[in-house]
Amino acid sequence: MSIRTASDAVQAALEAARWAPSVHNTQPWSFAVSGDEIGLRADTGRRLRVGDPAGRELLISCGAALFTIRTAIRRAGFEPVVRALPDPDRPSLLALVRPGAGTGPDEHTRVLAGEIERRRTHRSGFTTLPVPDRLVRSLAATAGQEGAALLVLAPPAVEAVAALTRAAQIVQSEDRPRHLEVVRWARPPGSARKDGVPAGAYPHDEPRTDPAFAQRDYAWRHDWGNPADQAGSTSPGVVTVLTTAGDTREDWLKAGEALQHVLLKASAYGVSAAFHTQVLEMDHLRAFLREELCGGAHPQMIMRLGITFDDAETVRRPVGDLLS
């Protein structure tokens, strides 16, 4: 059934936004609807108070939701009108979005919208099937359209980032408050919770990639995880860093929009992403990465891109729980 009114477009956008990616699947957003305008708000109660004290990862997550809203509105036949960070006195109000002039969605928009519910985060190695260079260049151009940059790392830099990730994971696993914060978002088998990382969404054992990229220990002291996730998955994939020229709240929001645009386009070509944020949660390591490998640009996300045949489990909260 076609969508014909702005109200229908708003409802479609809300349904789509809940599928956006977020750190540990915290889904740190809420929405307020006034007429045909959506207010995107940061749910600060879901911020990682130890791992993300400044709210950088929270705003990146919300930026991904913002791009999803934009895409759904455009798919519904309207041009989205966005006011980002509209009120300095209400810092949790991140954007106001409404359907604008009517427009026919192009093929690119239809393809992206079709991947919103299909896209999944991967948490292990990839198959050895290559990601085409032409697609990688296209994904980098896509990030640029949203005001960010996607840096594709050469082999020596990949080794360095893998080593930094392993070091950060070791240190963080010994930091009890930080580690317990991660475990809080791990879901045991059979859990009815609609947020966090389900037990079937990560490998039981450490991924065997070369070089090795450390994964979060969601199954800490538990026999959880997917034992089959390792089969044939040994490639680290294409290792990239999403960067921005600045490091303000506006930049973080833009990074999230760029991230989701890249992820949806990659998904349309059968390419998944695995994220590694440990290094970026430690200021001195993030500064090292910026100066030594990112040419002074601010790293916002480290992600590996590759091909997998695993269908990872995921959960999302219903729209009713997101409205405020």
Automatic annotation (TrEMBL):
Protein name: Nitroreductase domain-containing protein
InterPro entries: Nitroreductase-like, Nitroreductase/BluB
Annotated segments matching region Disordered: 188-209
Organism: Nonomuraea bangladeshensis
